[in-house]
Amino acid sequence: MSDMDETRLGVWLAANVAGFAGPFAIEKFAGGQSNPTYRIDAASGSYVLRRKPFGPILPSAHAVEREHQLIAALHPTGFPVARPYGLCEDAEVIGAPFYIMEMVEGRTFWDGALPDMGAIERTAVYEAIVDTLAALHSVNYEAVGLGEYGKPGNYFERQVARWSKQYRMSQTDDLPEVEKLIEWLPRTVPAQTRTSIVHGDFRIDNMIFAPAKPQVLAVLDWELSTLGDPLADFSYFLMSWVTEPEG
Q1: Under a CB-based contact definition with an 8 Å cutoff, are residues 71 and 223 in contact?
Q2: Is residue 208 within 8 Å of residue 220, measured between CB atoms?
Q3: CA 97 to CA 44: how far, in whole Å?
Q4: Which parts of the chain sit beneath pLDDT 50?
Q5: How far apart are CA 174 and CA 201, in angstroms?
């Protein structure tokens, strides 16, 4: 059983997802997604539902509508994202806005150290990740209809301001280290020299890989995506080289 009205969901799926046919079963994925994610197994195949959390949320957070807009723009280009099937902005259906996309079957690597692989295989996986990031940053965002997806400049300044604001709105303790960051970062952000689509959370466990080869089949979790400086994605990804793997 799921935590939503499956009858109303079934009616919406039949009316809005091409080729959908029931009956269906729905199960919540384990893991720490900030936007709860579910697997739907139906007579017509398997799908994924991604919704906003129920209840009050911070302004601009958990924007599944933006996620759907982005994957709908990227999928026709051949960039590896799940095929989108439909967006429901009516919170009355299941209690929150949601979208439906295809279920991409493959491997997920939760430990970026890839301890079960040899060096050659690990290298191939990470080269595939880097190639995927380069492909994302090479997409002509205006040509695919994402020219208004984000503000084109001052990405680092806007990120610092946004996250400082989000921190203040959900702050529970006084942390001197964070206060130092909030003071230091605005004074030291680098100038932006390029604009591209940025993922915002580009790391190995946000990708699905082919079962038997080092190929990225789908990049997931586009909640933080926008238009910004590609160096932000790249430097965030590089953190996996210097931080301890956390499983």
Answers
A1: no
A2: yes
A3: 23
A4: 1, 247
A5: 26
